[in-house]
Every structure is written in C-alpha cells, then in structure tokens.
Amino acid sequence: MTFIIDALSWVCLMMGCFLGISGAVGIFKFDEFYSRVHAASVTDTLCVFFIMAGLVLQSGFTLVSVKLIFAVVLLWLTSPVASHALIRSAYHTGLKPKLKTSRKESAKRGQS
Amino acid sequence: MISLELYNYWVVIFLMMAGFYTLIVSNHLIKKIVGLNIFQTSVFMLYISMGKVAGGTAPIAAEGIETYSNPLPHVLILTAIVVGIATTSLALALVIRIKESYGTVQENEILELDHISDTGPQA
Amino acid sequence: MISEHIPALQVVVPLLAAPICFMILNNRMAWLFATLVSWLSFAMAIMLVMEVKDGTVLRYEFGGWAPPWGIEYSVDILNAYVLLIVSGIAAVVFPYSWKSIQKEIPESHYRIYFTAMLLCLAGLLGMTITGDAFNLFVLLEISSLSSYTLISLGRDRRALTASFQYLIMGTIGATFILIGIGLLYALTGTLNMADLAVRIPPLEGSRTLEAAFAFLIVGFGLKLAMFPLHLWLPNAYAFAPSAVSAFIGSTATKVAIYALLRFLFTIFGTKFSFDYMQVHWLLMPLAVVSIMFASIVAVFQDGIKRLLAYSSVAQIGYMLLGISLVNVTGLTGTLLHLFNHALMKGGLFLTLGAVAYQIGNTRVKSVAGLGQAMPFTMGAFVVGALSLIGVPLTVGFISKWYLILATLEKGYWPLTVLILISSLIAVVYTWRIIETAYFQDRPADAPPVSEAPLSLLIPAWTLIAANLYFGINSSLSTELASSAATMLFGGNL
Amino acid sequence: MSSINLLIDIVLLTMLVFTTIAIVRSRSLFAIVMLSGIYSLLSANIFIILDAVDVAFTEAAVGAGISTVLMLATIGITGYEQKKRRTISWIAPMVVVVITGAVLVYGTLDMPAFTDPSAPIHQHVAPRYINDSPTEVGIPNMVTSVLASYRGYDTMGEVIVVFAAMIGVFSLIGIREKKSEPIHAEPPARPILQVMAKFMIPFIILFALYVQFHGDFGPGGGFQAGVIFSVAIILYTLTFSQQDAMKLVPPWVLKRLASIGVLIYGGTGVVSMLKGGNFLDYSVLAHDPIHGQHYGILIIEFGVGLTVACAMMLIFFAFISRGDKNP
C-alpha cells in the first residue's frame, strides 16, 4: 500500500517538475512577451497541482494536507489572475503582441 | 585549516559586498536603495547561518524533537528586518521628494544642481 | 516605589509620549506636552546622576528576566553624565522650538515635528542607558530615523539630499554595527554588555574578535562623523531647521562617541583596544587631520550654520584626540568636551535660530549690522564664539586645558601646538562673523530688523549662560567627567 | 545538516549569487526592483532551510511584498530608466568593498564551522530559551517567547521604529486627499481583477487573523499579521481605487490606530509596572505567572499587529497618492 502511494506521489512530483521546467524553457525559448507569459502561466497551474498532489500523498490524512489543498485552491485562483493582470497592464502600456503570420496563411488570405 | 566548512559564510559575505558595492557605486538613488537592501538582507543571512545547528529543527517545541536551532538570531533578525523596511520606506519617500524638487534622481545631476545653488543665493 | 523604575522611565516616558503627542490635535498642546516630557526626562536624568554619583551602578531588568537572558539597563556614572547632557539640551530646545519652527516649518507639520523630536530624544537616551548591545542598535535606528525626518523638514531643497545622504551613510554605519554585534555574539553567545566584558578578554587573539572590533569602530565612526566619514554632517546641520540643528548637533554625535567609548573601554577593555589593537594610532592621526582640515574649511564657508557644522567636525576631532592619548586626563578632556561642546554648539545654533527667525537666513553677509539691531542675540553669539575658541572663563577653555595637560603629560608637544593653532583658526572663522555683525553696516536697502522675541532669547541665553557658569564654576562637570574617566580605565573612584 | 538540505542550500545560494550579479549589472530599474524582490524570496527560502521559519515568513512578506510594492510605486514616479552617466571611477568603491569583504572573511576564519552545535553561540544564553521557555513562558514557539517576553523591550523598539518610519513618510509625502472629482471619470473596467480581489480579500484577512493569534504555536505573530492585513487593503486599492480604499479605512483613523497600537504595547508595560513588576514583566498580570505571560504576549502582539498594519497602509497610501499627481 505504502509502495503504491509512494510511487503515485513520485509520479505526480515528476510530472510537476516536468511541467515547471517546460514552462521555464518556454520563457527562454519564446522571443516575445505574450508568448513567454503564456508558456509560464499555462504550465504553472498544472505544475502546482501535481507537486501539491505528490506532497499530499506523502503527508497522508493530516492537517498538513488540508493546508496544502488550501494552497492549491488559492494558487489556482490567483496565478491565472496574476498572469491576466500582467498581460493586461502590458497591453495598456502599449506593448503590442507580434502577430506574425506565416507565408502560407497570408497566401491563403490573398486568394480568398 | 581553510576548509569548506565555512562556505555558507563566504557566499553570504560575497552577496553582502555585492550589495555594498551597488550601494556605493550607483548613481541612481533607487539603485542605491536596492543595494542597501541586498546588503542588509545578506547580513540577516549571516546571522541566521550562525544560528543553525546540525540536525536541528525550527525552534518550535514539539514532541520527540531533541535539537532545535538557536532562536535568538531569529528574534534579532525579525527586528532587523522591520528596521530595514522602515529605513527603505523613508528612503523611498525622500527619493520621491527629491524627484519633485530637483526633477532628477541621478546623483551627479543633483550634485550639479546643488553646486549651482551653493554659489547662487542661499535660502 | 517609582524611584526604582527611573532607569526604565527615563526612556519609556519620551518613547510613549511620542504616539500620544501625535494624537493631540492642538498644535500648541502638543508643544506644551512635549516640553513637559522633556523637562520630566531632564529631572529624571538629574535624579539618576545623584544616585550614581558615588560610583553605584543601577540595573534594571526588563520583563523581570535576569540578564543575559533579558534586556538590561545599567546606569553608571558615565551614562548618567551623557543622559544629563542629552536631556538637558532637550529641555532647552523643546521650549525654544515653538517660536522657531513657526517660520521654518509648515503649520501642518508641527505635530510631526514634536513627535519626531520626542522619538529622537528617546532613541538617544536609550542608546546611552542600555546595557544590551542589540538594544543599542534598535534605539540607534529609532533616533536615526527620526533625525532623518527632522532634517528633511528644512525649507531648502538641499535638506532633502542632505537627509538622504545622512540616511545612506547612517544606515551603512548601523549595518556595520549590526555585523560587529553579530560577530561578537557568535563568539560569546551573549548580547549583554557586562557579560560581553567578562567573556571577551580570554578571547584575545581571535580573528573574529578583531573583525568585530574593526566593524564596530567604522560603524560608530560613521555615526559620530569621524574624519573621512564625516561627509554627511555639514549639509545635514546646515539645512535642517534651526532647532533641529541645535538638538542633533549637540547630542547625536555625542551619544555616538559615548557608544564608542562604551565599546572601547567597557566591552573590549583597555587592554584589548589599546595594547593589543593599538587603536589609538588610528584615532590620533584621524583626529589631527580632522581638527586641521575641518577648521580650515570652516574659514571659507558662506553659511554660518555650515561653518559651525565644520567646526563640529573639528570638535569631534578634539574628542577623538582625547581618547587616543590613552590617559585619564585625556579622557577627562574628551568627556568634558562632550558636555562643553553640547553647551556651546547648542547655544550657538539657538542664537542662529533667532537670527534666522528675524532675517530669514544665516549667511555671513546677511548678519551685517546685526550687532546694533539685535544686541542680545549677537551678544549671545559672541559669548558662544569665545567659548568655541576656548577663552578662559568659558567652558571651551576647561576642556582644552585638560586636553593640553594630557598631551603634555604624554610628552606629545606637537599636539599641544596643534590645539593652540586650531584655536587660532577658530578665532579666524568666528571673527569673520563677529566683524560682519559689529563693524559693517546693514545695507541700506535691507528691511529693518528688531531684536528676536524673548521665547527664543531665553533658551539661547540659558545655554550661553551655562557656558559661562560651567566655565567659572567647573566643579560639577569636571568631577563627573574625571570620575567617569577613572572608572573607564578601571580605577576606583 | 542533511545532504538534501545542503544541496538545496547550495542551489539557492548559487541562484542568489546570479541574482545579485544581475542586479549589479542591470540598467533597467524595473528589472532591478523585480530582481530585488526575487532576491528577498530566495533568501526567505534560505531562511527556511536554516530553520528560521518566522524570519522567512517576515522576509517574504516584507522584502518581497511591501518593499517591492513601495519601490514600484516610487519608480512609477521617478521613471524606469537610468540615464547613461559619465564614467565614474569604480576603483575606489571596489577597493573599499574588497577591504571590507577581506576583513569579514578574515574574521570568519576563526569562527566555528557552519552548523557546529558546539559553537559558543549555542552554549551560553540560548539553551535556556530552548529548554525552559516552554515551561517558563508556556508557549511552544520559542521565537515568539523570546521576541515578546525575554526580549520584549527590543520588540517595543521595533514597533516604535515602524511608527517613526510612518511619521517620516507622512511628513515627507503626506497623503493627498483629492477633493475634486478624479480626472478620469471612468477608470478602465477590470472586472476579472475586481471579482477575484473581492473573493480573495476575506481569505487574506482570515489568514492575517490566523497568523496573528496562532503565532504562539506556529510561525507568525503580530508583525507578519499586520503586514498581511495591510496587503489585503493594498490589493483592494490596486484593483479598485484609492478613494474607495480610503473610504473604507480613512487615514485619520489609521493614524490614531497606529499610535494606539504603540500605546497598547507600552501600556502593558506600564500596567505591569503598576502591578509591582518591572516594565513588560507579564508574570504579574495574572495570579499565575504563566497565565500572565500568555495574556501579556497576546496583548502586545495585538498592539504590534495594529501598529504595523496601520503604518503599512498609511505608507502605501502616501506613496500611491503621490503617484497619481504626475502620471
């Protein structure tokens, strides 16, 4: 039983770490502000969930788990809103997203 | 006798000196304040490093725990952090006033303006 | 019952009076309240001096926890003496403030002014009285933060930059002190000063102790404006409101010197500080340079307040010189100069405040003809200037006399000459002002001036009269200073 | 220190070093301010690794929270970019810094090894706090008992420092009350933020209360609670408007309350003095010394929380009200 729980929690933790790291890679890879925020904020939510889930499995049915679940719920609410606020203020200060369209698409548009 | 046993202190000292350097060399008043913050925070880390005991836990009494880290540095640093934010907020308020009356927050420009008023009429 | 609590009340009363003062809506009431508190703390300081005069040491344990676990106040003859200076100056400056700030500070800021003054007073008193190294840091920050506020209240915009510069340098100093205290704590496991004094001597030779010593010296050096670290002082004193210059100029650096003395003599001990670290060979050249340099710079100043500020740097040099001679006479000279310099600079800044009240500024040129127009104010200034020079029958003479005796005792006659030369320079820079005031006519186009109001003159003359009184009858200050000096050198009273 | 902790410690220290270097080299003020917030958060993590949970809590709330907010408000007024300056000599500062650092490193050479339990720092005063405070003061969190009782006077000084800073900020940039109608009649709507803020604020306040009254048992106490409480109001101000927030908590009330908080702390000391103990000796407050300590700590922590919360809000209002004037 403990082995299964341990294994599950490790899988969760690994998933969380993967998502977190991929978000970080995204921040570095993308060349433009909005894509970067997108990469970070999308992965962030699930990353938090997986890591917290792994930790909840580790700590079992205790007060600590309750606190962790609270943290997850609050983070789920706040972190997308934080990203929203970030992008919103960037947009209002005049940073325009780069809307590059590929040649194929523009060709299509030209035909129609 | 020089060993890696003291690595934590040395890294903290490096951070401290980086903050101190920023504080002295910066021309921009806000960057000076940031340097000051880094300097102070590193001093806090020095204190907390001194309070750590191998195998200890946070100094909150609980069943079955024998070793605790030293609580006194924690108390001192709590106080020092508060002093730090107090100083920072006062410094920032001063910066705002300086900006309003000089129109700049670059130290060299302020000094030039002061020099002009030193030679001109004095209030 | 109340008397046993006096060491605590000495600081707690002004400390708690500050928020009360901030809540009082009426400006005049706030002023009366603050003045009352300052007189009360002066009275308590006198009581403390009376109690410790014979060498007893009063101890007060906060929270009922015995030191070194709890925080302790300990009052001996040295800090009672400094308490007397600080609260005495406060008791004169507070009543003076009301009239003086009316032309220098917007009315909306009166309450803030008195609150900050009370905080500054409490912080300085606390730094002096405390027997706990970390508590000293906390109270140092209280006094520093409130003095940054007070300096920034000056009318000129340069008050802001002066305050900012003071804030940066003062915080560096405080952080250095924090590092030094931390290293001491790491070495000994205690923060109580008396306990530190017991535990440090066996550690002689420890590099950590040497580093702690260096950081504390530099930290306090910044706070007391030791020569190359004095850059914050001239502008801070020059652009602060007059009453603030008088208060901070005559107390803040004194308390920092007291703290330095406490660390050098009591905590590290004379053996470590002077025999092992040889700190007097650092202090002496710095003292000499600061006396000469600051005196000469003072000669070329346009503003009288800035002139006096540079003169303060020079006077701090005298105090350091007294320490660096490492004998009882020299230290007595230092301690006397703490007292005497507070009296003369306090008096001079207060008279300048009266000048600023009447003519709006304090440039050397602007005082032309004031000798006739404001005879009492300028008369006070002349007496204060004489005291600054060190003319017999004033307090300045007494402390310089002790310093000269100490240099002769040691056989350092070049230092004797130096003191005499710098006194001559003091004649030069004060003469410029006196000459302008008495022997030049007021420009024809200048508006007529009259004598300053009594509420400014009485406090100013109180300090000036004290200059004369303690210059003629110096037994009280000399007695206290020499027994404090003997105590610091570990002798019996 | 266990090896995993060691590893985390080293990783965090490395990140700190990189952050610091980035701060030293960066020109953009916005980046510098954000990096200094990151620096604070990282150092809070270090504090956790080194067992200082209370300190970590405070550093995260203050260093990364309040101080970053205040700095952002300031650079909003002063401008985001540093101008190119004439080359100032960096040699003299570098020499000063290197000498200072060398003295410190020299000083550490004789220090006992990091985490050595036999170091003198752990021998003299600290054992009593660790062994006896749970019975003498009667609360498990030793940091709280040292902070509030053994060294309660220092903490009173700390509250006064906050009060002094509030006085200073107030004197310098006071709060500008806008009597006329705001120039932008209708601020751009921010429905998502406002709904979320309305939802979050009760939780934040609840958390502040928890931290306030649970400080005896876990990390936390009046200072942290005060900061968190003020964060709730700061959030409200940022998502709605300053006028709304100042209608909710008018500055004149905050001013009184901040003073009252200090007086509650000092008053506790005075009461214990009147009851025959020394200043801040809580043992005399009740028949049983332990109960007395409990009451005393509860009351003074409340005073701390009150002053800190009000002072932080006032300071924030002052900064924000300046910002609106010159956009």
TrEMBL record, chain A:
GO molecular function: sodium:proton antiporter activity
Record flagged with keyword Membrane: yes
Keyword Plastid part of the UniProt annotation: no
Keywords: Membrane, Transmembrane, Transmembrane helix
A Pfam family matched in the record: PhaG_MnhG_YufB
Domain of life the protein comes from: Bacteria
NCBIfam families xref list: CPA3_mnhG_phaG
Name this polypeptide is given: Sodium:proton antiporter
Organism this protein belongs to: Leucothrix arctica
TrEMBL record, chain B:
Record Pfam families: Oxidored_q2
Keyword Ribosomal protein attributed: no
Database matches in InterPro entries: CPA3_antiporter_subunitC, NUOK/Mnh_C1-like
GO cellular component, one term: plasma membrane
Localization: Cell membrane
Protein name (record): Na+/H+ antiporter subunit C
Entries under Gene3D superfamilies matching the protein: 1.10.287.3510
Ranges annotated as spanning the membrane: 6-24, 36-55, 75-96
Family of this protein: Belongs to the CPA3 antiporters (TC 2.A.63) subunit C family.
Keyword entries, A-Z: Cell membrane, Membrane, Transmembrane, Transmembrane helix
Main localisation: membrane
Bilayer topology: Multi-pass membrane protein
Source species: Leucothrix arctica
Cross-referenced NCBIfam families: PRK07375.2-3 (NF005624)
Keyword Metal-binding carried by entry: no
TrEMBL record, chain D:
Domain MrpA C-terminal/MbhE: start-end pairs: 105-173
Membrane topology of this protein: Multi-pass membrane protein
Pfam families: MbhD, MbhE, MnhB
Compartment list: Cell membrane
Gene Ontology, cellular component aspect: plasma membrane
Membrane-spanning parts: 6-24, 29-50, 56-78, 90-109, 155-175, 195-215, 221-241, 253-274, 294-320
Domain MrpA C-terminal/MbhD: 15-75
Biological source species: Leucothrix arctica
Record keywords: Cell membrane, Membrane, Transmembrane, Transmembrane helix
Top-level taxon of the source organism: Bacteria
Residues of the Na+/H+ antiporter MnhB subunit-related protein domain: 192-313
Primary localization class, coarse: membrane
Stated name of the protein: Cation:proton antiporter
Membership in a protein family: Belongs to the CPA3 antiporters (TC 2.A.63) subunit B family.
Signal peptide range: none
